[in-house]
Amino acid sequence: MSESHDHSQIVLRRMLDANTNRVMEGLRTLEDIARFSGWGRLQVDYKSIRHALQHTIDALGQGSLGQAALVSARDAHGDVGRESKTTQEMHRPEGLVSIVAAAASRVEQGLRVIEEATKVLAPNQAASIEQQRYKVYDLNAALRLACQRDLGFLQQAKLYVLVDCQLEIDAFARRIAEISKAGVQLIQIRDKHADAIRILEYFQVAQEAVETSATRVLINDRVDIAATTKAAGVHIGQEDLPVRSSRRILQPWQYLGLSTHDLAQVQKGVAMGVDYIGCGPTFASQTKSFDRFSGIPFLLQAASWLQANAPTVPAFAIGGIHLENLPQVLGAGFARVAVGSCVWNAQNPAHMTEKLRQMLDRA
């Protein structure tokens, strides 16, 4: 065996050893972020990948690439890259998002190096590494979306419309498309009298109707339906499935909104990490009856507390809001509203949407 061959074997084993450690460390980091964020599906998937990779590495050890061989090739003291650091390596400006980005990149690059090394050292294992690498790409994308969840869109949204499933399906699709084009940013499928099949059918139609626009479609209450679709998220009430249980069921990238009726519920919702809150009921509503109304005083309280303690959490005033009383809502510090019949049952829904958006945009 030539000296050059011996050298290449040592180099490849060092690459395999270093990148196996790098990938395992990165996977553990990503798995723990998913675990402690409550994203059970992602946590299980990362754990499965980590175990599958370890199984593949252990299979290499049945030949001449056992752990002892890899460790014997290790030369940490003589590693020329040991002291080579960049300023970015010690800097995580966006907190968890930056940690995920760094760990994800480390895992993806490390798997590629392992794959290349095994093409020479153990060609029969290279395909397995490649498959795991592609699975990791999808997992990492899902985790990044979960950490960001496009909250910037929520923070920019001002008009949220609640719709029922009472119109004929074709008329429903046309109206959804009209209000979307007119400026509705969020739509919620909310119909207490519709069964799961009908809700799913109308959601799918709404999703198709807004496909070429920026409008997002959410589902009311039914976490189970939202989790199995491409819904932007789900909105739950105080008596629905709890926030933590809902989060475990939802896809990591889906929004979770919560209805609140007093300041204590606002504070609890923010502490539990909901993506946005609805505050109300503000006025009497045509779509929902209440024993009491939180009214403008609650909006004033909520706006003041949120501005001081959670300024990035979007809050939508809800309950009987229309053009005539919208100035009271704006005066209470709310520039986002959720409306139902005001738009959905208007004689000209698109025109009403435009007028509401004009008032909200000027606020």
C-alpha geometry: elongated
Sheet having the most strands: 8 strands, parallel, barrel
Which percent range fits the helix content? 55-70%
pLDDT below 50 for ≥5 consecutive residues: which ranges?
none
Number of folding domains?
2
Indicate the CATH class of the largest domain. Alpha Beta
> What is the CATH topology descriptor of the largest domain?
TIM Barrel
- Strand arrangement, major sheet: 1-2-3-4-5-6-7-8
| CATH level-4 homologous superfamily of the largest domain | Aldolase class I
What proportion strand? 5-15%
- DSSP summary, beta strand count: 8
Mean pLDDT: 88
Euclidean distance between termini CA atoms: 78 Å
Using the 3D structure, state the CATH architecture of the largest domain. Alpha-Beta Barrel
**What is the chain-wise order of helices and strands?**
HHHHHHEHEHEHEHEHEHEHEHH
Radius of gyration: 26 Å
Tally the helices: what do you get? 15
Instruction: Determine the structural class based on helices, strands and strand pairing.
Output: alpha/beta
Describe this structure in words.
It is a single chain. The protein is an alpha/beta fold and 363 residues long. The chain folds into two domains: 3-148, no CATH class; 151-362, TIM Barrel (Alpha-Beta Barrel), CATH 3.20.20.70. Helices cover 57% and strands 10% of the residues. The protein has 15 helices and eight strands. It has helices at residues 3-36, 40-60, 67-73, 96-121, 123-148, 151-156, 169-182, 196-209, 223-227, 243-249, 263-271, 295-309, 326-331, 341-344, 349-362, and strands at residues 159-163, 186-189, 216-220, 233-236, 255-260, 276-279, 315-318, 337-339. Strands 1-2-3-4-5-6-7-8 form an eight-stranded parallel barrel, surrounded by five helices. Helix 12 (295-309) links the parallel strand 6 (276-279) and strand 7. It is elongated and about 85 Å long. 37% of the residues are buried.
